[in-house]
Amino acid sequence: MLGKHRARKLGAKGAVVCQRVSPRQLETRAEDRHRCLCNYCRHEMEILPLGDSALIVRVRERFEDAPEETLDEVLRAFQQLQSAAIPGTIELASAYTSVAVFFDPIAVAKASGTPGEVFDWLATKIRGVLSSVVAVPNRRRSPHAPRVIEIPVCYDPEFAIDLDDVAEHAKISTSEVVALHSVTEYRVSCIGFVPGFPFLAGLPKKLATPRRDTPRKEIPPGSVGIGGAQTGIYPLRSPGGWNLIGRTPLKLFDSRKHPPALLRAGDRVRFRAITRAEFDSLKR
């Protein structure tokens, strides 16, 4: 019988949901850790169970210490696992310091031939994949070349309802906020929160602004916001607590397209300031 304990689990779209786990699972979770050292990674990697149909490959412990290097290592692991197509795996999702591997327990059990050792078999396969990258002396294997995506943004007062608050917090003018925000090149750390939402690293420290004390119940699609030390774009109408400073006419998520999200982890993003007239023209 399942106990009353719960563990956090990543959903298919990156949402966090709760799943019941047994007391025995909680007791053995620490024992189930698999550690390995990849040829292209100088840091010890952990493989941890996440419920009964997913696991986490933790590449780094911290993101803030070396954002670019950490993201590169996460993307390398993601791409290597994607290419390996380990039997039973359903989906991969990269985050700031890790890659989540979602799998079909029945399919993995059939592939492994040992139904009682699904996690161990899969973890061993993952270790093998990530350890098989050919080491090149004094040079790390690079992930695929990142795309550079330009996002037009209208910083008109109608869309930038929190621009004054950001400027006040930074002790600069609103025009300086716009100039700083639109001159910087950002990098997509991960996609999450809602489908297609890009968390963008690289925000100038001057513009870092705490999230709103009271989140709004509804944020229009395309809204560009600042939340703490990050900036991002709301792809869908949703609740949110970030400070809104503009809006893009581009559609960041379209379920009819493949892939449905405009941006992906690793992309580099540049914002281009546009007028309200240009916004209306591009929106058509």
What does this structure look like?
This protein has 284 residues and is an alpha+beta fold. 25% of the residues lie in helices and 29% in strands. The protein has helices at residues 23-28, 67-84, 105-112, 118-131, 163-170, 174-183, 276-283, and strands at 6-10, 16-20, 34-37, 44-49, 54-58, 89-94, 98-103, 148-154, 185-191, 198-201, 216-219, 223-227, 230-233, 238-240, 243-247, 268-274. Mean pLDDT is 84; it is low at 1-33, 36-41 and 134-140.
Q: Using only CA atoms, what is the Rg? A: 21 Å
Query: Got a strand count?
Result: 16
The shape is: elongated
Classification by helices and strands: alpha+beta
State the helicity in percent bands.
Answer: 25-40%
Q: pLDDT below 50 for ≥5 consecutive residues: which ranges? A: 1-33, 36-41, 134-140
Percentage of residues in strands:
25-35%
Order of helices and strands: EEHEEEHEEHHEHHEEEEEEEEH
Mean pLDDT: 84
Note the main attributes of this structure.
five-stranded antiparallel β-sheet; 7 helices; about 280 residues; elongated; disordered N terminus; 16 strands
Walk me through the topology:
Layout: E1 6-10, E2 16-20, H1 23-28, E3 34-37, E4 44-49, E5 54-58, H2 67-84, E6 89-94, E7 98-103, H3 105-112, H4 118-131, E8 148-154, H5 163-170, H6 174-183, E9 185-191, E10 198-201, E11 216-219, E12 223-227, E13 230-233, E14 238-240, E15 243-247, E16 268-274, H7 276-283
